[in-house]
Amino acid sequence: MSETIGQDQEIDLEEQKVLDAIAAELPAVSRDVHQLIPVLQEIQRTHGYVPPGSIKMVADHFGITPAKVFGVATFYNQFRFNPPGRHPIKVCLGTACHVKGGEIILENFARRLGIEEGETTKDREYSLERVACVGCCALAPVVVVGEKIESYVTPSKVEGVITEIEIQNEMAERAKAQDEQQSDSE
Ligand code: FES
After folding, report:
1. Could you report the per-residue pLDDT of 109-128, keeping only the tens digit for each?
2. Cα(102)–Cα(46) distance, rounded to whole angstroms?
3. What is the CATH code for 4-75?
4. Of 6, 15, 25, 180, which is most buried by a Cβ count within 10 Å?
């Protein structure tokens, strides 16, 4: 099972870079506590998520407790605390998709990736989340992989979705290696 990134995980190098950037950005922001939500939104917009390690920094900036910041951030469903994967997988669990087995699809992705919904694989390749209706109920059950809509997804299609991403990654790596070889020989 893959290791996952969660609140109690060690801070890795990528996350440390994000925290350093936030530490550099915060001093320029007003300390008016009414700015708390806009600041969290800006962190998420810039970095793709609100790293748990930034909660205390934000709290110190506004002179409030980390619990208060965390409470506000979790009250509004818009904030995520895990970095998005390079291939975010969003399983639709709106009514039509739910009726057609969306939960089972979600469970299958979770099992295949070794993460729970709301988590990101340690290598940051994949993140998994449930979403509300994405607007194409006629194709239910639906999964959104990156920008691509996968329709009529069945549990047996889950492996195929991951394999397709792996093949694309491998092809991209080969193309990159070829480019490097070419530029070395020039
Ligand atoms: S319920 Fe899934 S697309 Fe509408």
Report:
1. 999 999 999 899 988 999 99
2. 31
3. 1.10.10
4. 15
